[in-house]
Each structure stands twice: as structure tokens, then as C-alpha cells.
Amino acid sequence: MAIIQVESLSKDYKGKHAVSDLNLDVRAGEIYGFIGPNGAGKSTTIRMIMQLAKPTSGRILLFGQEALRPSPELRRRIGYLPSEIRLYERWTGRESLAFTARAYGLKLDGTDFREQAGMLDLDLDKKIKSYSLGNRKKLGLIQCLLHKPDLLILDEPTSGLDPLIQRKLIDMLKRQREDGMTIFFSTHVLSEVERLCDRVAMIRGGRLLRVENVEGFSGARRHVFKVRFAGEEDRTRELGLREFDDGAFLKDGVHRFSADGPLGPVLRKLSGCEIVELTVERPTLEDVFMRDYEQEEER
Questions:
Q1: Distance between CA 156 and CA 238 in Å, rounded?
Q2: I need a labelling partner for 36 at 20 to 30 A (CA). Which of 136, 203, 238, 271 fits?
Q3: Is the separation of the CB atoms in 147 and 79 below 8 Å?
Q4: Residue 190 exposure: Cα atoms within 13 Å on the Cβ side
Q5: DSSP secondary structure string for all residues of the chain
Q6: Locate the ABC transporter domain: which residues (predicted)?
Q7: pLDDT greater at residue 290 or residue 193
Q8: 29-65 residues labelled b (16+ CB within 10 A) or e (exposed)
């Protein structure tokens, strides 16, 4: 079942296309990455999914129901963390959580807030006005998890968090997925997607470029070779390395290139050479991401 289904979704602002003909489907129980640079249309798309912005055209379904108009029933099933969070600064973190719990008809002590605050190293007894951006993000995340939503929508959740807390957040989200939650995760930090997501959609200029399993984005059959030959000369032409993608001579006999398919043909081409050092790696998500963007620019 598709928890989020977006069909031909578009949004125009003053004659400019913020989102154009977008199609997405997010399946139950998956962590779905939504990636792109700042200004790509990620937040605009999320605001339309959350019924906070009206589409120019297109269709949105949440849990199989039409969601083009604000629906309290649907929102009760969703936890949402916007990219910019605003809180009552005179309250403590605990008071803010207690208010949120009451809004959902819950008692704060009956939720997992203590465990989550401990995991994220958040002091709930301090005033929110003293919180850093990172601590505000932590509090916002705990707030949107209080009612154990079926769908969690996160817009750039790790901005302002230090690397250790980012890892703890990712562990927390994996645990939520294990409990059956569906997570829609918007970010421009590609390493997070690689560690966390099942599928990923790439958006640029409001247009969807690609949707694939994370393993597919990480290169599939592509390998990146870095070879240091004996001697310091450029052997690109001699060995025909221009046949491969990104063939380049670096320095001190080091050459770098990438190739699709099995390793055998490449290794046979190199076998007659005196090799000092050879590394073969899969491209990172960032490598694939930048390659697709460059190809899109060329088109």
C-alpha cells in the first residue's frame, strides 16, 4: 500500500515553477529519501503533502485518501518536523512536550519522551530560549514522535546537529521503522540517505530526476579504479583509458577511471603493466548524484 501517493503535482509561484509534474509513491514501512540541493523544491513538496500549501495542479493521496484540503483526521496520523521550527521560548522543553501531548489527548508520562531525550542528549528542564538550533531540532523531533504516528515527515532534520547526535538520530529512526512507521526523509546530506533510506528520489529545479533503491544509486555494477603504475608518466593514451568514464591522469603515475560491468575486462587491460598500487571501489551516492546532475545540465 502507498502511504504517500503524489500524481502530476505542480506548484507555481508568481509564474515560476517551484514543482513541476511530480510523481511519487512511498510504501508502508519504508524510509524514503527525498534529496536535492537547497531550492530544489523539497520543502514546497512537503508543504503540499502536509496541506499547508495548495497545489497549482495534481493529486495527493495519504493512506489512500485524497489530501488536497486540510484534514485533522489525516494529520493525527502524521508527525511532521519542518526545516525551520518555531517554539514558545518561555517554556521549558518539558512544558512544550506536555502541551503537545495534551493536544493529542495523551499524558506525557505515557510516552517515550524520556528515552528519546536521553538518546539525543537533550536537557528538557532548560528554557527553549536558551536552546541552540540543534536542540530545537531535537525537541521538535521528540514532539512529532509523541503520538506514535503512522507516517513521519522530516524536512532537513539533521541541520544544526553535531555528527554524534546525527548518528543517534539515524539509529532512532531505524528503530521507529522497525516498529512499523513509514518515514519520508528530506535532506541534502547524501551520506545520511546512504546509511538510512530504502529508496531515494532525486529532485532538481522542481523536477523529479530519478527514483531508485539506494543500492542502485550507489553504483550497482559500476566500479571506480585508482591505479598507480611504476613510473610517473601519463599512460592514459597508451592503455586506452579514455574508453572508460572519467578517465584521468592525476599525478606521480596515478590514474583514475570508472567502468560498468564485470571487473575482468578492465583487469586484463591492466595486466601487462607494472602496478604499484590498485584500489577498486563502488561509487558513493554523492558520486552518482553529482554525475546525474551534470548529465541533466548538459541536456
A1: 47
A2: 136
A3: yes
A4: 15
A5: -EEEEEEEEEEEETTEEEEEEEEEEEETT-EEEEE--TTSSHHHHHHHHTTSS--SEEEEEETTEE-SS--HHHHTTEEEE-SS----TTSBHHHHHHHHHHHTT--GGGSSHHHHHHHTT--TTSBGGG--HHHHHHHHHHHHHTT--SEEEEESTTTT--HHHHHHHHHHHHHHHHTT-EEEEEES-HHHHHHH-SEEEEEETTEEEEEEEHHHHTTTTEEEEEEEESSSS--HHHHTGGGSEEEEE-STTEEEEEEES-SHHHHHHHTTS-EEEEEEEPPPHHHHHHHHHHHHHH-
A6: 4-230
A7: 193
A8: bbbbbbbbeeebbbbbbbbbbbbebebeebebbbbee
Q: Are 229 and 288 within 8 A, CB to CB?
A: no
The CB density around residue 24, as the number of other CB atoms within 10 Å, is 21
Residues whose CB is less than 8 angstroms from the CB of residue 111 and which lie 6 or more positions away in sequence, other chains included: 97, 101, 146, 147
Sign of the Cα torsion 191, 197, 199, 204 reads: negative
pTM of the entire structure? 0.80
C-alpha cell at 61: 493521496
Please list the residues that pair with 248 across neighbouring strands.
Answer: 256
In the block, cell 560491468 appears at 261
Q: What is the phi-psi region of residue 255: left when phi exceeds 0, alpha when psi lies from -120 to 50, beta otherwise? A: beta
- Give dist(CA 138, CA 65) in Å, integer: 31
Residue 214 cell numbers, joined: 539506494
